[in-house]
Design a protein that fits this description.
alpha+beta, 7 helices, 13 strands, about 30% strand, protein serine/threonine phosphatase activity, PPM-type_phosphatase-like_dom
Length: about 350
């Protein structure tokens, strides 16, 4: 208990919450998405170096540029929350560069999403996320423990407050040149990776051989592995694929009333080395992926980035396309994380 109460929380200038967004429509400008940070501030950036095996072990330097866009779609309320932290050291400085990005897709309200937004990263840091030397095993252990602590304390808060909100999550940590991805529920992360060994954007015929790689696995009650756990816990999955005929996801923060029947907040955690072939990552809630396929989204973002547009504009146009053109009815949130190679 003491560990949770003493952990740091993320400063409001680093996060984006839906209740601070203009609701209802996009206009023709790219300034309709309001953020807690001032729009005149410089776009969030971080610089990292990675080993380049194709050039005799020399180092490549990348800037990470990231931004978020959100819209409530046709819903009456916005229940998503997000985090963009190019420098995510907080009160745990170290030699190892740390960046963190996340989307929390709330359901039944936005309290669980906002709680996780504020506490998860701080709990992961306090659980031992490496800050000096990279240790993949230790990093994954810290992420798992951070999820556990966050859900445990969230459930305590929801019991005291009498609320039962839940939230899916997709999170990315960049530690040095290693990327860690963790998720619960149906929010997804998609990596855009070049098929060319040198990371070039263009092939000989002028096309852009960028592949969309799905980095996450959805957790829904209808899937066999998730269904088995739910049934073992005494829950049931109805003919509509929902837990107790109500909840579609099988892993989430919160959802206090479903924790005894198989809902857990244990994430899948994966990692990979960042190379010159990796161009950007898109984090999105299920509203975005309901109208965009992975390759479709990657092609859309890649086209805009090749035009030289900043990530802030690209993320807004992605969400605008989803809501206004593709008629996304759900809340829609997207974080675009671009890895720009420095010359």
């Amino acid at each position: 208990m003491a560990e949770r109460s003493n952990s740091a929380s993320i400063d409001k200038q680093s996060v984006s919450t839906a209740n601070n967004k203009r609701e209802g429509h996009f206009d023709n400008s790219d300034s309709v998405i309001k953020k807690l940070r001032n729009d005149t501030q410089e776009e969030p950036k971080a610089e990292i170096s990675v080993q380049n095996d194709s050039k005799n072990g020399s180092e490549l330097y990348f800037e990470i540029e990231a931004d978020v866009a959100e819209d409530k779609g046709s819903r009456h309320t916005m229940e998503d929350a997000s985090v963009v932290l190019p420098d995510a050291s907080l009160e745990f400085p170290g030699k190892l560069r740390c960046a963190h990005f996340a989307i929390y897709d709330g359901h039944g309200g936005r309290l669980a999403a906002e709680y996780a937004q504020k506490h998860l990263h701080a709990n992961v840091l306090s659980a031992g996320l490496p800050r000096e030397l990279l240790d993949v095993k230790a990093a994954k252990k810290a992420i798992l423990e951070g999820f556990r602590r966050t859900d445990e304390s969230l459930l305590e808060e929801s019991t005291k407050g009498g609320w039962q909100d839940g939230a899916a999550a997709v999170c990315v940590w960049v530690l040095g040149s290693k990327v860690f991805v963790a998720n619960i529920g149906d929010a997804k992360a998609i990596l855009a990776r070049s098929s060319l060994a040198d990371g070039s954007n263009n092939s000989s015929d002028g096309s852009t051989p960028i592949k969309a790689i799905v980095l996450t696995r959805e957790h829904k009650a209808i899937y066999p592995q998730e269904r088995a756990r739910i049934q073992k816990a005494g829950g049931s999955v109805s003919s509509n694929g929902r837990l107790q005929a109500r909840l579609e996801v099988s892993r989430a923060f919160g959802d206090r009333q479903f924790k005894k029947v198989g809902v857990i907040a244990t994430p899948d955690v994966h990692s990979f080395d960042l190379t010159e072939r990796d161009h950007f990552i898109i984090l999105g809630c299920d509203g975005l992926w309901g109208v965009f396929g992975p390759s479709d989204a990657v092609d859309f973002v890649q086209k805009l980035l090749k035009e030289g547009l900043p990530v802030s504009v690209v993320s807004r146009r992605l969400v605008r396309e989803a809501v206004r053109e593709r008629q996304c009815k759900d809340n829609c949130s997207a974080v675009v994380i671009a890895f720009r190679k420095k010359q």
